[in-house]
Write a structure and sequence with these properties.
This protein has 202 residues and is mainly alpha-helical. 50% of the residues lie in helices and 0% in strands. The chain binds zinc ion.
Length: 202
């Protein structure tokens, strides 16, 4: 406008607390440094010399920082479970699934951390997958069906996986139990998402 630039924000809710206002200031700083042109938008990857965005370049940057092959030492892979299921549980062990609490700690301050399903606790991976009432009832049914002792729903996901791998059964049976447990967690997560995003009771 008149050779200058004006940002016309369309807020659904204006930034309110100090943290959000500070984020707003740094966003404005970033935008000020940015030159607008009439050419089309492109993705760039800054960690790469030519700033070319590709999966290969992303992988390369990540591998400079992490060992991509490392897994939690107690974690057991299981080829009887769907890949989505086992990957999900692997991430859930380290609270790397987008639970409300995880999103809050990644800086999304507007997130309600109280569980939307029961309202009784903060929404952590352990809460969704083990300890809230609905999950506990599912575990009671699952363990009854598998003829194994009820799992400890108060502990962590890693502890539960350890617990079931110590059950005195044949190797094959333990693998089967592990597969059911992992897949149950995956289904509990999908049920949670249905409730949170579609309001559907499953
Ligand atoms: Zn809950």
């Amino acid at each position: 406008m008149n050779g200058g630039r004006l940002w016309d924000w369309e807020w659904s809710r204006a930034p309110s607390d100090i943290e959000e206002r500070q984020e707003m200031v740094s966003l404005n700083d970033l935008l000020r440094q940015q030159n607008l042109s009439n050419s089309g938008d492109v993705w760039i990857w800054k960690n790469n010399e030519h700033q070319e965005f590709s999966v290969k370049n992303v992988k390369y940057s990540l591998s400079q920082n992490f060992d991509l092959n490392s897994v939690p030492c107690t974690f057991i892979w299981n080829n009887w479970v769907t890949t989505k299921g086992i990957m999900f549980v692997w991430r859930a062990i380290e609270e790397k699934i987008p639970s409300a609490l995880a999103l809050r700690s990644r800086g999304m301050n507007q997130i309600q951390v109280i569980c939307k399903t029961c309202g009784a606790a903060e929404e952590t991976a352990g809460h969704i997958l083990l300890s809230y009432n609905f999950a506990r009832r599912i575990w009671e049914a699952i363990t009854f069906w598998l003829k194994i002792p009820m799992v400890n729903a108060e502990g962590s996901i890693a502890e539960l996986l350890q617990e079931i791998s110590d059950i005195p059964r044949s190797r094959k049976m333990r693998k089967l139990i592990h597969a059911v447990v992992v897949q149950t967690m995956w289904v509990l997560w999908k049920i949670r998402n249905e409730k949170v995003f579609s309001g559907r009771q499953v």
